[in-house]
């Protein structure tokens, strides 16, 4: 039995098999069955690991498909683990395979395989026709088809910096990210999905920076956690998104403080050199680096004695997500969760979100004729993010993404499922417009970028998206009314 296609979800892929010459040139619309021509290596589940390894070596295969029920897969990495763990080589392959596996139909475009690899962190995707595996597409196959593949960017990041944090290869990452984002946008992948890809690549870049910094400074003195905040924490980053980071460490000692301050300085500088702008508001690990228990007290102070500035700070930290390091920061999640029982904080979040409502004309209609590119963020994506934070907090959800928060709110009957879907569709449109502006602005042609946003089709989509935002903000006032 072949597992259900995981790419069928409406957010998994927005790409289509289209005759657009630019899309064809990018290679992302190529059917998966045409990406590779060789037959896959198929082995019965009782085959020994030694025999599978020999067959893979002789046939120059990086994986073998196990004809079990359901289908399994074994890769070079699995065989390496068997060797490292000193397990016997005559054990059946069914004991070391991965099963079930994600598969895609033969007619699916290459973009489906690319996004599945990025989503699941895998390097092999079996391709099926009916109930039969007919091909296996690998990350190498994707890279060969598309020079601007996000997988290729990830590989470059992993290899970058062999000469240290100042390696000349690191500043090229921003250009690589732009190329990958442009290729995805060209085949119709929506902005929300592309933002997740950009964020995952920024995560990989951060991890690489930390590895290089630790190589220079020596191993850390105690466990720590590098935290992503804001759009990076939500996995919703665009190309111009700046650094929003923090660092927590276990031991409140002077020695640890000095080490992690130096670590934060090196990584922050390295990210800036690689094209990730510094945060103008100062939300970076260089300023927000402290012991875990001090973080906990800070969070409780924001919630117990809220004021305008503290709530602004707390909003950014509602998105925190560990990116690297072994320190468990669950205590911070539990501290922030106390906001669910603070109606005053929820009201303040709702009121703040409504301050960014899209402007209306004389008859209450949303206007786009004079909408500057910056307003697409300020009057569009910002209030959606704030509503996600509000409803996620009210639902007591641990979700970090805006989509996860809004769906959790719908499940808790705080908003309707239709309202959540409408708002997420609007969010995807607005992020796509912002991304198109960023990509157009890379050439210095700001007028062209603005025209891109206000073209006939995108203008209609933009108007509908902003109307959805305004409607959602008005609805929030029913639950969280303004005083007086």
UniProtKB/TrEMBL annotation:
InterPro entries: CBS_dom, CBS_dom_sf, Diverse_CBS-Domain, DUF294_put_nucleoTrafse_sb-bd, GlnD_Uridyltrans_N. The keyword Protein transport does not apply. Keywords: CBS domain. It holds the Pfam family CBS. It comes from the Bacteria. Residues 36-89, 97-153 form the CBS domain. Residues 1-21 are annotated as: Disordered. The keyword Cytoplasm does not apply. Gene3D superfamilies: CBS-domain. This is DUF294 nucleotidyltransferase-like domain-containing protein.
């Amino acid at each position: 039995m072949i597992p259900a296609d995981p790419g069928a979800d409406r957010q998994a892929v927005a790409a289509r098999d289209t005759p657009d010459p630019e899309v064809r040139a990018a290679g992302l619309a190529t059917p998966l069955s045409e990406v590779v021509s060789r037959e896959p290596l198929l082995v019965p589940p009782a085959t020994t690991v030694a025999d599978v390894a020999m067959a893979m070596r002789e046939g120059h295969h990086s994986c073998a498909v196990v004809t079990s029920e359901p289908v399994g897969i074994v890769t070079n990495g699995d065989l390496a683990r068997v060797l490292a763990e000193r397990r016997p080589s005559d054990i059946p392959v069914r004991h070391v395979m991965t099963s079930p596996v994600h598969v895609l139909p033969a007619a699916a475009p290459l973009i489906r395989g690319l996004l599945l690899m990025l989503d699941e962190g895998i390097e092999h995707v079996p391709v099926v026709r009916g109930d039969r595996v007919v091909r296996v597409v690998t990350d190498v196959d994707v890279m060969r088809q598309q020079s601007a593949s996000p997988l290729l960017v990830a590989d470059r990041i992993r290899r970058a910096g062999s000469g240290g944090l100042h390696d000349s290869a690191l500043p090229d990452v921003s250009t690589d990210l732009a190329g990958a984002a442009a290729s995805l946008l060209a085949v119709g992948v929506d902005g929300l999905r592309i933002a997740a890809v950009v964020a995952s690549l920024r995560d990989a870049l951060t991890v690489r920076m930390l590895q290089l910094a630790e190589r220079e400074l020596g191993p850390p003195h105690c466990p720590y956690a590098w935290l992503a905040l804001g759009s990076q924490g939500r996995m919703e980053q665009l190309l111009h998104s700046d650094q929003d980071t923090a660092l927590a460490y276990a031991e409140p000692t002077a020695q640890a403080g000095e080490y992690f301050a130096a670590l934060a300085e090196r990584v922050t500088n390295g990210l800036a050199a690689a094209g990730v702008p510094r945060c103008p508001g100062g939300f970076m690990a260089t300023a927000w680096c402290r012991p875990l228990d001090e973080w906990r007290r800070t969070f409780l102070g924001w919630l117990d004695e809220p004021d305008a500035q503290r709530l602004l700070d707390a909003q950014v930290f509602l998105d925190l997500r560990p990116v690297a390091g072994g320190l468990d920061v669950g205590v911070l999640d539990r501290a922030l969760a106390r906001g669910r029982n603070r109606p005053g904080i929820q009201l303040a979040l709702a009121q703040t979100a409504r301050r960014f409502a899209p402007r209306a004309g004389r008859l209450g209609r949303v206007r786009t004729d004079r909408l500057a590119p910056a307003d697409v963020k300020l009057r569009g994506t910002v209030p959606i993010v704030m509503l996600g934070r509000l409803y996620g907090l009210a639902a007591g959800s641990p979700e970090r993404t805006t989509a996860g928060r809004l769906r959790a709110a719908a499940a808790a009957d705080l908003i309707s499922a239709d309202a959540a879907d409408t708002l997420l569709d609007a969010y995807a449109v607005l992020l796509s417009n912002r991304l198109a502006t960023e990509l157009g602005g890379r050439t210095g042609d700001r007028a062209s970028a603005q025209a891109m946003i206000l073209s006939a089709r995108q203008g209609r989509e933009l108007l509908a998206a902003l109307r959805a935002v305004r409607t959602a903000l008005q609805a929030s006032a029913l639950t969280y009314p303004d005083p007086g």
